[in-house]
Design goal:
The longest helix is centred in the N-terminal third of the chain and has 66 residues, at about 5-70. This protein has about 650 residues and is of the alpha+beta class. It has helices at about 5-70, 70-80, 85-100, 135-145, 195, 245-250, 290, 295-340, 355-420, 420-445, 450-490, 505-515, 515-520, 540-555, 615-625; strands at about 110-115, 120-125, 150, 165-175, 180-190, 210-215, 220, 235-240, 255-260, 265-275, 280-285, 500, 525, 535, 560-570, 575-580, 630-635, 640-645. A 6-stranded antiparallel beta sheet has the order 8-7-6-11-10-9. The protein has a 5-stranded antiparallel beta sheet with strand order 2-1-5-4-3, sandwiched between helices. Among the domains are: about 70-185, PAS domain (Beta-Lactamase), CATH 3.30.450; about 195-295, Beta-Lactamase; about 420-490; about 500-645, Histidine kinase-like ATPase, C-terminal domain (Heat Shock Protein 90), CATH 3.30.565.10. The protein is elongated and about 170 Å long.
Length: about 650
Amino acid sequence: MTIRSKLLIFALGISLIPIFIITTLYYFNARRTVEQQTLSWLTAVAESKKTHTLSFLDSKKGRVVDFSSDGYIRDSLEKICIKETQSDAISDLKRHLKVNKKSLDSQITSIAVLDINGMVVASTTEEWNGMDMSKDDIFMSCVSKNYGESHTGKTYSATYLDIDCIFISAPLTDKRANKTIGVIINAYDISLLDEITTKRAGMGETGEVLLGRKNGDHVIFLTTLKYAPDMPSRMSVPLSSTGAEPMRLALKEQNGTIIALDYRGEEVVAAYQYLPDMDWGLVTKLDKKEVFSPITHLRIFTIIMGCISAIVVIVIALIISKRVTRPIHELVKGTKKIARGDLDFKIPAKSKDEIGLLASSFNEMTSQLGESNKRLEDYAGNLKGMVDEKTKEIEQMLDELRYKNKEMEQIIYVASHDLRSPLLNIQGFSRELQSSLDQMVTILRESDISDEIRAKFTDPLEEDIPDALRFILTSSAKMDKLLSGLLRISRMGRVTLTVKQLDMNKLISEIIESHKYMLNEANVNIPINELPSCKGDDLQINQVFSNLLDNAIKYRNRNKDTKIMISGKNEDGCSVYCVEDNGIGIPEKHKENIFEVFHRLNPADNDVTGDGLGLSIVRRILDRHGGQIRVESEPGKGSKFIVSLPE
């Protein structure tokens, strides 16, 4: 990044960051203020609508109580209860309800008078007459009330009316004993509530007031919805839906405010109230877009002012940066010439500020570099000759080492191979001597010679010569074993590796299966974790883990249960495997020697067979694969052999 860019960024940073912070804080503070004011105002509107609704219902309750005190209605109902005078009394009561009562309140949809059994004896609606309402809540909850009390029904529809209504009832009592003899019911069209909710003065374009009630797991809106005015019936929304959140909270008998989705799926700012007498919820709401539209204008204004400020700052920064960077560019041009090797070039130092001092320092540096460069060229010439000479010596030593190594392998192969022929002759002739000796002993025992002569031949034939032959056979067998081991090692260096990706889980399973008899005989438990794959020759890698498993079985602790665990992981581009046992362990002094040819941990232990080549073969195989092996062990606690191979 250039200095001009850095100066520009710095200027923008110190000027725009404060502007950004101040405008952001102002924006969010204004947003919070608008939100709080709107919620407070909506709460006030909700409380006002709640009061208005309750006042409306109270006036209607007062109306039905007033009707229940009408002496004519009470006297007529008493007469109707007497069978002889029923017909005329019913006709007179119907006329009285239509002419004298319904006319008092134009909002009444229908009036009905019920006897003590819940039968409609007279009504302004003809279909209502004679109906049995003894099971309806509007009758059952009212008949037990006292004179002057009322009950508002929780049901809003009836089969005999085409519209949903609010039903309000009051008990009718006789004049003498004040005993309940029936019930009077006033029905009001529920759309009367729209007169309260549709008055949205001061609520903006999107303001709306909702009344709702709970019906099972749904909320039913009781009033006409502003954005769904043509719904054929009262709109129903599941209580669990996000669009019913404000109303759901109101119907949970809560009062408060919230920003949530409404029945349209639009985000709104809402206040909610609970009407306990009716078990209704009331919600007043405004679209969030309308509430925060002033904030949107403020945001746009802030962005415009920020852009104008940024442009002004950029112009000023460009002018200043150009003046600051001009001498620096001249300095850069001079340094490029010096970098191309023109150490005699001098940078003009016109100014007396820091740039001028820097130019003078560069001129002094180039003078020193010219002198140093000459010395380095002389030294480089000498050094190159020394490096070439040493490289040649190292290559000669490596060639000689490769030749010696190949020669040594050939000598070992020839020696181990050719020495076996005379060794086999020694073993063969020794067995023939043993056979001849046995014949001579038999002849000596069967011949008729004196005891004195027989005694002279007995010791050499039965003791001295057999002991010598046993020593010869034992030594030759041991020598044959050593030569076989050398032959195996020499052949290993000449075997061509077939390297491929190995499934170690499958390979270890095959090794365990081949050692199954030994494992069962030694009662060995082998837990195996999931093993990563590696690259190698499957036959030779099989031999590596076979030898490690053999050693773990051979050197087990026979005084406790044997456990051998095999695990693996990927680490630093290698697959690392661990063969861990709880055997006799390895003393510290033997940890490195165990990988030497013919080295055995305890040669005198005849219970442990082996020729001391297993671990040396393991190390040689791993060396050829570019792998490693190391051991961690503690006497009496067991050993860990850790093998790493290319991943």
